Task: inverse folding
């Protein structure tokens, strides 16, 4: 029977998350975490609506509007009226937004892969298995 105390996973993950966030900010200093997450949503969904983005981010519509407005001002995304439903606004990425998103994601993924590279192949597979398990709905 192990006498080791159960590890506090949150206290281990939070500093790692902060460090990766700093890496992201270095790659794209003008983009906040929520702005980068918004670019990710726009990249993964074909012309999401403002509501789609708000739902994915888990924030209010006014907060989403503020983020989208900043990204529009930075010429990273555009807002257009839905062709079929004029009440709905669709968001799409500009070519500058795509470049910013890809550059930031590439730097972030490289930082993550660099951290993981200290693990053995077996440990990497185990980590991947655990992360997939944590992502699955309960």
Result:
């Amino acid at each position: 029977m192990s006498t080791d105390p159960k590890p506090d996973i949150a206290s281990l993950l939070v500093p790692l998350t902060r460090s990766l966030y700093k890496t992201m900010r270095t790659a794209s200093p003008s983009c906040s975490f929520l702005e980068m997450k918004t670019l990710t949503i726009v990249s993964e969904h074909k012309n999401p609506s403002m509501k789609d983005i708000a739902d994915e981010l888990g924030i209010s519509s006014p907060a989403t509007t503020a983020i989208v407005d900043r990204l529009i001002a930075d010429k990273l995304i555009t807002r257009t009226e839905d062709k079929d439903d004029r009440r709905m606004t669709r968001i799409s990425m500009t070519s500058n937004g795509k470049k910013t998103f890809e550059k930031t994601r590439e730097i972030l993924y490289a930082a993550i892969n660099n951290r993981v590279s200290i693990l053995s192949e077996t440990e990497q597979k185990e980590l991947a298995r655990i992360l997939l398990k944590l992502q699955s709905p309960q």
Summary: The helical segments are 9-27, 33-44, 50-57, 61-73, 95-116, 121-135.
